[in-house]
Amino acid sequence: MSDNAAAAPAKRIEFDDPHAGIGNMQEAEVTRVRTLRGGWRWALVVATAATILLCINQQFSLRFFIDYTQLNTEYFYLLIALMLPFTFLIFPGTESAPLNRIPWYDLVLAVATFAASIWLMLNVRKAAQFGWESDGAPQNVIIAGLVMWVMLMEALRRTGGWSLLLSVLPFTVYPLFAEAKWLGPFRGSQVTLDQATAYHVLSGESLLGIPIQAFADTVIGFLVFGTALMMTGAGKFFINLAFAMCGTFRGGAAKVCIFASGLLGMMSGSIISNVLTAGTMTIPVMKKSGFRASYAGAIEACASTGAVLAPPVMGATAFVIAQFLNVSYAEVAVAAIIPAALYYIGLFMQVDSYAARHGLKGIPRAELPRVMDTIKAGWYYVFVIALLIVMLLYFKRESHAPFYATALLLVLNQLFSRDTRWTLATIGKFLEVNGRTFVELVGILAGCGLLIGAFSMTGVVSSLANDLLTLAGDNALLLLAMCAFTSLILGLGLTTTACYIFLAILVAPALEKLGLNRMAVHMFIFYWGMLSSITPPVAIASFAAAGIAGSPAMKTGWESMWVGSIIYFIPFFFVLNPALVLQGPSPYLAGLGLLALAAFGTLFICGGIQGYQAFVGDLRGTGPLEWPLRVLLVIGGFVVATPGGGINPLSQLQVTSMGLAILAPTVLVALFMIRRQSLVPNQLRTP
After folding, report:
1. Which of 273, 415, 543, 611 is the most buried (most CB within 10 A)?
2. Residues sharing a CB contact under 8 Å with residue 470, sequence separation 6 or more, in sequence order
C-alpha cells in the first residue's frame, strides 16, 4: 500500500515543542477556564503536590502519618478537600463571569466545599464504626453532607456542563420519591432526606464509591506519568518517529497522523491532549499534501479518539471499568489490545483507500526526519515504557507502575537530554498542569459517584435488568443495539466516563444476564460512549481539530463520522466473541485468528466506503456498477469480519464462507470492469 515519493532537497519536517497540548490532559469538554496567578497558582501547586504525596503514601504504605493508620475513606476525603474547591476557582460559573479575577461568591463556594470535606473526613471513621451511612448520623454531619451534595452538583455543572448536571441530578434525588407509581420500572425503596444524605456522603457506594476509588488508587499515578512524558519531550519523539516511518507512504501525512496519535494516545489516555499535541503538526502537513481542511481535521479527531482505548495508559474510564469489574487495571488494558488494534487498522485502511482514490502522494524522504536520528534522540522512552508494561503485566502492580516509570523517566531525562531537563520552574508547571487535570476529573467523578449511590440505595438495578430483558424479548442482538443507541445518545451530552457509569449501572446487568462475557459487555459500553467524541452535535475531538484545521466545526464532525465509519461496527465483533477481548478458552490463539479475519473484512469495508479497493483499483472504473459493487464490498467485508458462534446462530466457518461468497464475485466483476476500462482508448473513454 506504499507509494514512495521522489526525494527532493527541502527543509525537514520536525516537531519541536515538547510541551504542546499539555494544558488539557483529560477528555472533558473544552470550556472557559481561568488561569490562576500569584498566590492562587501557588495554592494549586501546593495542593497538587500534597495530593501526589498522599497517593504515594497510601499506595506504598510509607506511613507519613506517624502512629496513625489512615482509612481509605479518610484518604478519599483528603483528596476531595485538596482538589474539589479549586473547581470553583478555575471554572467560572457563568459565561459572563470574569476570567482575570476570582469573584467573592466563587471563594465562598470553595471555602464551603473545603470545610464540608474536612468535617466529613473527621467524622467518617465514626460513621464506619457506628453505621451512620444507614441511619442515625448526627445533625452536624447531615448539614455538612447537604453542603457537599450541593457543591458536588455545582462542580459537576462547571466541569461537565448543564447536560451532565441534568443527567445526574434527577437520579441523585430520586431515592427521595422512589416509591412513586409514575416511575414504573424505576420504582424502588424510598428514603428520607437525612438517610439519602448520609448514604451519599458516608457510604462506600456513592461519593466515596467506584469513580473516586479509581481516581485515588490508579488514575493519579497514570496522569502524573502522562504529563511527565509530554514535558520531557515524548510528544516530539513519537511524532517525529511517525513521520520517519510512515511519511513516504501514499497519503503519508494522514498515516503519520494515525500512527503518531496512536503512540501518543498509548501514553496520555487523553483525546483533547492528543488533538492539541499531534494535530498542530499533522493537520497543516495533511493540508499541504492535498487533504482538504475538514478531512484533515476529521482524520486527526478519529485518530486521537482512540487514545482512551489504547493501552497501556488508557483514559480514566478504563480505571473505572476495573473498579466495576473488581479486576486489575492490567486485565482491562490487555482486553483493550485487539479492539484498539482493530480501531487503528480500520482508520489506516480508510485513509489508504481515500489517498489512492484521490492520487495523494507521500512526503519526500528528504523532508522527513531520519529514523535512526529520532531513535538516538529518544531511546530512553523505550526503557520507560518497557518498565511500565512489565510492572503492569508481570508484577501486577498497577498502582505502583506509573510512579516507578515516572521516576525512571525523570532520571534518564536529566542525564541524557539537554533540551528538556527540568528546572524548578518546570516542576511548578508540571504540578500546575496536573492540578488542573485533577480538579476537573474530581469534579466529574465525584459527582457521577452519586449516580451509583442512588441506584444502590433504591435496589432498582436488578428489577430494571429484568424489565430490559422482557422488553428485548431475551434477544441479545436487539438489546445490544438498544444499548449502542442509548450509549451514543448519552455520549452526545455526557463525558465518556459519565456515559459509561450510567450504562454500566442500568444496561450491563441485563446483558450479563443473557450470558454475555462481562469484560466484553463493559468494553462495548465504553467503546460506544467514546464514539461521541467524533459524533455531532457535540464531537469535542472533531471541534478541537477543526479549530487547528481552520474548517467549519460541524462539517468536520460529519467528516469524522464518515472517516471513522468503520469503527462503529467493531464493538459488536468483540461482544459476539469475547476472544477479541482476550477472554474465554485459548483466548490468545482465538483472538489472533479473529483479529486476522476482522482485519481482512475491514479491508473490503473500507474499500467499499471510500470507493477504492486495495489490489483491485479505483471503483469509478466500473462505471454504473460502482455503487452496487461498493455496497456489496461493505456487506461482504462486514460478514467476513463478524465472529461466528456464541449468540450468533452460525458457526465461524459458515459466516466466513458466506462473506467470501459475496466478496469473490464482487471483486472479480470489479477487476474485470476496471481492466476493460483501462484497455479502452483514451479518446473513447467517458470524460
Report:
1. 273
2. none
CB 273 within 8 A of CB 25: yes
Confidence (pTM): 0.85
Q: Return d(Cα 377, Cα 683) in angstroms, integer.
A: 55
Q: In the prediction, which pLDDT does 25 show?
A: 38
> Which residue from 572, 559, 558, 563 is spatially nearest to 638, judged by alpha carbons?
572
Provide DSSP, 113-148: HHHHHHHHHHHHHHHHHHTTTTTT--HHHHHHHHHH
Query: The C-alpha cell of 1 is what?
Result: 500500500
Q: How far is CA 362 from CA 6, 48, 253, 257, in A?
A: 9, 45, 7, 13
Q: What is the DSSP string of 298-328?
A: HHHHHHHHGGGTSSSS--HHHHHHHHHHT--
Q: Is 272 within 8 Å of 547 (Cβ atoms)?
A: no
Burial grade of 39 (CB within 10 A; 0-12, 13-18, 19 or more):
exposed
Instruction: Please give the Cα distance from 464 to 554 (Å, whole number).
Output: 37
- In whole angstroms, give the CA distance from residue 547 to residue 565: 22
Across all residues in the chain, what is the average pLDDT?
Answer: 87
Q: What is the distance between the alpha carbons of residues 120 and 136, in angstroms, rounded to a whole number?
A: 15
Highest mean pLDDT among 77-86, 272-281, 338-347: 77-86
Percent of the chain at pLDDT > 70 equals 93
Per the rule left: phi > 0, alpha: psi between -120 and 50, beta: everything else, 359 is left
Tell me the three-class secondary structure of 474-541, residue by residue: CCHHHHHHHHHHHHHHHHCCCCHHHHHHHHHHHCHHHHHHCCCCHHHHHHHHHHHHHHHHHCCCCCHH
